[in-house]
Amino acid sequence: MGLDGKKKFKKIENIITNIIMWLELVLALFILGAVILSCKDIISLIYKVFITEALDSYTVLQGLLSHVLLLVVGLELAMMLIKHNPGSVLEVMLYAVSRKMLVSSSTTVELLLGVIALGLIFLIDKYLHTKDTEKIIK
To answer: Global pTM?
Structure first.
């Protein structure tokens, strides 16, 4: 492949990279829009917490927490699509595991695995994820 071939290949690679970046931005905007539209459901769930009797309020509160944490995971996912750094991936994983543990951990084994997963995420963030490289990239 000659010098002209390499330049053409590099130009095509840059075009494809730009298309992918724009598609990720559009997907992040769709996620953000969905989160904003879902905020109305939070208001109705909060109202349900107030009007529900004490015995049934646990289920309603669990639904509220589940919904709020799902929206947080959605926001973090949108940030990950925009920022493109390892810290964003770790934050999405952290919130996703936390949501799973708080909302639907039914057995002790699931809870233990969630705690181990959170511990591993924190260890990776502290010892393997270097925050200095993110500052250099920006």
So the answer is: 0.78
- 86-109 tens-digit pLDDT: 888 889 999 999 888 888 767 888
Let me know: does 97 contact 85? Beta carbons within 8 Å: no
Q: How many CA atoms lie within 13 A of 83 on its CB side?
A: 16
For residues 107 and 16, give the distance between their C-alpha atoms in angstroms, rounded to a whole number: 46
Q: How far apart are CA 77 and CA 130, in angstroms?
A: 20
> How far is CA 41 from each of CA 35, 61, 70, 115, rounded to the nearest angstrom?
10, 13, 12, 30
Phi, psi at residue 99, to the nearest 5°? Answer: -60, -45
Kindly list the domain boundaries of the chain, sorted by start residue.
Answer: 1-74, 85-138
pLDDT tens-digit series, residues 31-89: 999 999 999 999 998 899 888 888 888 888 888 988 999 999 999 999 999 988 888 88
- Distance separating alpha carbons of residues 133 and 97, to the nearest angstrom: 26
Q: Which residues contact residue 27 at a Cβ distance below 8 angstroms, ignoring those fewer than 6 apart?
A: 78, 81
Number of C-beta neighbours around residue 119 at 10 A: 10
